[in-house]
Amino acid sequence: MPGTTPSNITAKTQFVHAGNETYAYRRFGSGPARPLLFLQHFTGTLDNWDPAVTDPLATERQVILFDSAGVGRSTGQVPTGVAGMASHALDFLDGLGLESCDVLGFSLGGMVAQQMALDRPSVFRRMILVGTAPRGGEDIMHLEKPSLARHLSDPTLKGYAVLQKIFFAPTSTSQIAGGAFIQRLAQRNEDLDTASGPDVVAAQMAAFRQWEQSTATRFGDLNDIRQPTLVVNGTHDEMIPVSNSYRLSENLPNAVLLVYPDAGHGSLFQFHDSFTRQAAAFLASDSPFAPY
Amino acid sequence: MPGTTPSNITAKTQFVHAGNETYAYRRFGSGPARPLLFLQHFTGTLDNWDPAVTDPLATERQVILFDSAGVGRSTGQVPTGVAGMASHALDFLDGLGLESCDVLGFSLGGMVAQQMALDRPSVFRRMILVGTAPRGGEDIMHLEKPSLARHLSDPTLKGYAVLQKIFFAPTSTSQIAGGAFIQRLAQRNEDLDTASGPDVVAAQMAAFRQWEQSTATRFGDLNDIRQPTLVVNGTHDEMIPVSNSYRLSENLPNAVLLVYPDAGHGSLFQFHDSFTRQAAAFLASDSPFAPY
To answer: Distance between terminal CA atoms of chain B?
Structure first.
């Protein structure tokens, strides 16, 4: 029966007031494992989470998707820095009464996850950082690069179609996977989120530019993130190059690195079977060490 | 009962004549999966294979450990190039009548595996390359580096004890894992191999120096290795730095990269539970794509 399997295709959007805002979120799935918070990419809303990633992970735990302030149907202004976004996410978890969870941060969401772990170390047990960069990373979301700009300025690409181009590698195999990805996103057709506008773009781009600026000791902050961490990327990521994932795994004290071939920024969507299997195995571990 | 579980602690050394040489090998385990050929590191013999790595993999397949020409109890001269070593390994497989197998190449053995895949593409179905480098890689086995030389010239370190220092990171956790590793190696006490002498060292070091020289198109050869491949390393490898594993996964068209934290060259021995679980999952896949 439709709707009986917990899925981001059908999960009802909920709202919680916390701090000074009302946050839109979806919470579905069940199981004995700790809830898994999903932190979203540049301009992404609740509707941008691939059910092929959320749903298999929802079979052993609750998954929680969340719109930060000013995104989708959440109130407020989009912060112009990652620290402000981390503060909103912590307020949101406080609003749910969740003291500790696991986290999957993708792209911008991976930066927010790192900042949250620094600001409140107890909030996360295990962390998954996909297609993201450390503070002081390189070539972060430069949409003016020819390899990205040609797709973003292509008038024939509308809506999700642009994601197929910029989240996936130019090979036929990756583009086919990208086509399947946008078809999966399009399966949700009710209770849709509000798409991000130019104000979201401007504020989040400002946050990327700030995140590229290193703190005093480049990558030194990462040593304070002690959680077992799984760092994931595609080897052909044009949006946040894989070198940033190398720097994360070299400087985080307790991180396993997993890199997929023939894949770009959206490696988790392209290889959703492998990714959810690896993520579930990583999250199932209670070891203080990341290897699983 | 001792000896009933297939193990490199107890497996009998066998000999096969093939080409112009007689090769020493051990073959044990059983199961429906394709046999797995192990290709050994610098100066390593059959006795240097950690039973914590070989034995779990022998529960679903035969594992085959092998001494190349001039190593251990195999006859002949150690070649001064990787190509010669690949030729011996192919002769050895021909001698066993094995047309195709899976391979786990560690360090020098990973270079030999790459060369074999180029010379006879049909020989391998899936490949695992651990702590190794592509042809034209960087900083390959420079034992004169202070970080390595201080252990190799330490008169208090004898036999396997030097491996604890150079295969493992300097952290207490990694050194404890290194101590456990050499205790596992020491469990075998009969039918031991002949330890490598200065002639083996000299010839294999010459092979490393040649391997550092790029072919005309740096890393271009890798595009011809189409096998699904798993590339593994420790992020603190001083012998063959992890950057070489990055270059492998970036240039092999079909390779997943897995990097372990808090580990050096011997990451597979330090995290043997995780490594054998990941390797078994990778080898269990029949997909034409590496992700598992």
So the answer is: 36
Q: pLDDT tens digits for chain B (292 residues)?
A: 455 689 999 999 999 999 999 999 999 999 999 999 999 999 999 999 999 999 999 999 999 999 999 999 999 999 999 999 999 999 999 999 999 999 999 999 999 999 999 999 999 999 999 999 999 999 999 999 999 999 999 999 988 899 999 999 999 999 999 999 999 999 999 999 999 999 999 999 999 999 999 988 999 999 999 999 999 999 999 999 999 999 999 999 999 999 999 999 999 999 999 999 999 999 999 999 999 9
Minimal Cα–Cα distance from A248 to chain B, Å? Answer: 11
CB proximity B286 to A under 8 Å: no
Residues facing residue B23 across a β-bridge: B16
Q: How far is CA B52 from the centre of its chain?
A: 14
Q: What is the DSSP letter of A156?
A: T
| A3: contact with B, CB 8 A cutoff | no
**Closest CA of chain B from A172, distance in Å:** 13
Rounded CA-CA distance A74/A106 in Å is 19
Q: Decide if B242 and A258 are in contact by the 8 Å CB cutoff.
A: no
For residue B130, give the H/E element and its range. strand B124-130
* Nearest alpha carbon to residue A248 among A141, A137, A102: A137
> What was the ipTM of the complex prediction?
0.97
Tell me which residues of chain A, numbers 167 to 186, contact chain B at a CB-CB cutoff of 8 Å.
173
